[in-house]
Automatic annotation (TrEMBL):
Subcellular localization(s) per the UniProt record: Cytoplasm
Keyword set, alphabetical order: Acyltransferase, Cytoplasm, Iron, Metal-binding, Transferase, tRNA processing
Cofactor binding comment, as recorded: Binds 1 Fe(2+) ion per subunit.
Family to which this protein belongs: Belongs to the KAE1 / TsaD family.
Chief site of localization: cytoplasm
Protein name (record): tRNA N6-adenosine threonylcarbamoyltransferase
Natural source organism: Roseovarius gahaiensis
Gene Ontology terms: biological process: tRNA threonylcarbamoyladenosine modification
Length: 355
C-alpha cells in the first residue's frame, strides 16, 4: 500500500510518500516547504499569506515527493490530505489539491485529522502497539490522549488557554529573542539560574490533567518590567535567569500533569505501556528529560520521534491515511475542510460524513 500525503494546515507546505508492506511502514519521501520567512515581519502566521503560499507550492511539493520516491501517480494507491483542523485557507488549498489529483486519476481520497497525524507518528517511527499515552505539545496544541486506534482517541485533558509553544514564542518576544521562541529560550536558559525567579505552576493545585500557560508569560512580563524599572534594562544574566525560570515552570507543569495522565492510562492495563510525545516543544531537552525519567520510573516505555517528524510534515498524514485506508475508510469529493475538529470526535459515527 503506497500513500501520497499532503499537509497545509499551518505554515508548512508538505507532501510525502509512505509505503506500508507487511505491516511495516517506510517513508519513501518527505518534502517540507516552510514559510517562516514570509511571516517573519508580522510576528506570527498571517492566514491569507499562508493560504496563497500553500496554493503556489503544493504542486511543486507533490512533484518533488513523487520524484524522490522514484514514483509517478501510477504507483500511488490513495491520496491522504489534512482536512482539518487548522487555518481554513491553508486546509482548503490542500483539500482542493488532493481532490484534483483524485478526480484526475481516480485514486481514493482520505481526509486526515492533523492531530491524528501527530498522534499516530510513534507508530510510523517506532511501531508501538495500541493503546499508548500521547502528549501532543506544540505551537498550537497541548493535550493528553490515550490512543487506542486510528480513529479511537480518549482526551484526558489539555491546556485551557495557550499552548506551551505559544508561551515560549511570546516569552521570547518579551525578551527580544528571535522566533521561533522555543529554541531561543532554551539556548538562553543554559546559562540561567532557574531558582532566581519563582514563576507560578498553574493548576497544579487542581485535580485532573488540564493545564494553563498564559499566566506564565504574564509573570515573565512582570518580572521583566520590574527589572527594567529598577535598573533601566536587562543584563544578559537577567535574560538567562528569566528563560531558565520560565522553562523550568513549563517543564514542571508538563511533568506533573503527565504523571497524572500516566495513572489514568495505566488503569487501562496496557500490555506494553508507552508514553509518546509529539509536537515541536518535545524538542526541549529539559522537558524531554523530565518526561523520560518519569516514564522510566513508572515502568513505561518512552518514545520521542525525531524532530523532523514531531513538527508538521506530510509523512504523518500519509501514514495516518494508510491506517484509515486499511480500516476501510474512504472520503468522497464532497469532503469538507474543517477549521475545528476535536480528535475525540474523529469516529465516523460522530462525524456524519466519510465512511
Ligand atoms: P501545531 O502543529 O499545533 O499546529 P505548530 O506547527 O506551531 O503548531 P510545531 O511545528 O509542532 O507546532 O512546533 C513549533 C513550536 O515548538 C513553536 O512554538 C516553537 O517555539 C516550539 N519549539 C521548538 N523547539 C523548541 C524547544 N527546543 N523548546 C521549546 N519549544 C520549542
Ligand atoms: Fe502540527
Amino acid at each position: 500500500l503506497t500513500i501520497l500525503g499532503l499537509e497545509s494546515s499551518c505554515d508548512d507546505t508538505a507532501a510525502a510518500v509512505v509505503r506500508v508492506s507487511e505491516g511495516q511502514p517506510r517513508i519513501l519521501s518527505s518534502v517540507v516547504f516552510g514559510q517562516t520567512d514570509l511571516h517573519a515581519a508580522f510576528g506570527g502566521v498571517v492566514p491569507e499569506i499562508a493560504a496563497r503560499a500553500h496554493a503556489e507550492k503544493l504542486d511543486t511539493c507533490v512533484k518533488q515527493a513523487l520524484t524522490k520516491a522514484e514514483l509517478t501517480l501510477d504507483g500511488i494507491d490513495a491520496v491522504a490530505v489534512t482536512s482539518g483542523p487548522g487555518l481554513i485557507g491553508g486546509v482548503l488549498s490542500g483539500v482542493m489539491c488532493a481532490k484534483g489529483i483524485s478526480v484526475a486519476t481516480g485514486l481514493p481520497l482520505i481526509g486526515v485529522n492533523h492531530l491524528a497525524g501527530h498522534a499516530l507518528t510513534p507508530r510510523l517511527t517506532d511501531g508501538i502497539a495500541y493503546p499508548y499515552l500521547m502528549l501532543l505539545v506544540s505551537g498550537g496544541h497541548c493535550q493528553f490522549l490515550i490512543v487506542k486506534g486510528c480513529q479511537d482517541f480518549t482526551r484526558l485533558g489539555g491546556t485551557i488557554d495557550d499552548a506551551p509553544g505559544e508561551a515560549f514564542d511570546k516569552t521570547a518576544r518579551l525578551l527580544g529573542l528571535p522566533q521561533p521562541g522555543g529554541p531561543s529560550v532554551e539556548r538562553e536558559a543554559i546559562d540561567g539560574d532557574k531558582s532566581r525567579f519563582r514563576f507560578p505552576r498553574p493548576l497544579l493545585d487542581r485535580p485532573g490533567c488540564d493545564m494553563s500557560f498564559s499566566g506564565l508569560k504574564t509573570a515573565v512580563l512582570r518580572a521583566r518590567d520590574s527589572l527594567v524599572a529598577e535598573k533601566g534594562g536587562l543584563s544578559r544574566q537577567d535574560r538567562a535567569d528569566l528563560c531558565a525560570g520560565f522553562q523550568s515552570a513549563v517543564a514542571d507543569v508538563l511533568a506533573e500533569k503527565t504523571r497524572r495522565a500516566l495513572d489514568l492510562y495505566m488503569a487501562e492495563a496496557p500490555q506494553i505501556p508507552n508514553l509518546a510525545v509529539a509536537g515541536g516543544v518535545a524538542a526541549n531537552c529539559e522537558i524531554r528529560t523530565k518526561l523520560k525519567t518519569l516514564s522510566h520510573d513508572s515502568g513505561v516505555g518512552f518514545v520521542a520521534p525525531p524532530l523532523s517528524l514531531c513538527t508538521d510534515n506530510a509523512a504523518m498524514i500519509a501514514y495516518a491515511g494508510a491506517e484509515l485506508f486499511a480500516a476501510g475508510h474512504r472520503d468522497e469529493l464532497d469532503m469538507i475542510a474543517r477549521p475545528r475538529w476535536p480528535l475525540d470526535q474523529t469516529s465516523p459515527a460522530l462525524l456524519g460524513s466519510g465512511k
